[in-house]
Design brief:
The chain has a domain of 102 residues. It has 4 helices and 4 strands, in the order H-E-E-E-E-H-H-H. A hairpin with a 2-residue loop joins strand 3 and strand 4. The termini are far apart.
């Protein structure tokens, strides 16, 4: 008699994929019920705008492949939400449980940190440092001869 072990992989697997699609169906249904704004496909997400504030958390919520928000749908935020979509795909229905255990403080939540705290609006965005202009970096003045 052989000793066989059945291993069930819960992340990045058909099981997590099924959880992702289930969450997407729930998010899609919730969005259709409450969205009063445009519904668009952007950055690989189905974006529901015009949602009442009580229907989502913080500035918006990613549920599976759907992003639910009132009007927080800029490109930078959607880049952040695309990472959450990938997290849903990887973990499936484990994602909300893991997110809960990671904590409500986004500055310590590993999933928010992975998605980008600045892009998610949790930290102010850094601006590129300005370098002082030196004489060598200024364009040379063109002096035209008199009478030209």
């Amino acid at each position: 008699m052989s000793d066989r072990t059945l291993r069930i992989r819960l992340t990045d697997s058909p099981i997590s994929r099924a959880g992702y699609w289930y969450a997407t169906a729930v998010g899609f249904t919730w969005g259709l019920l409450w969205s009063t704004g445009p519904v668009r496909r952007r950055h690989g997400l189905i974006v529901f705008t015009g949602m009442p504030k009580w229907t989502f958390g913080r500035g918006g919520s990613c549920v599976g492949g759907c992003y639910l928000t009132d009007r927080n749908d800029g490109d930078v935020v959607l880049g952040h939400e695309m990472v959450h979509k990938a997290q849903w795909e990887k973990y499936g229905m484990l994602f909300p449980v893991l997110y809960l255990f990671a904590g409500r403080n986004p500055l310590r939540n590993r999933f928010e940190i992975e998605a980008g705290l600045e892009a998610g609006g949790y930290l102010p965005r850094r601006r590129p440092a300005r370098t002082p202009r030196t004489a060598a970096s200024r364009p040379a003045e063109v002096v035209e001869p008199d009478g030209a």
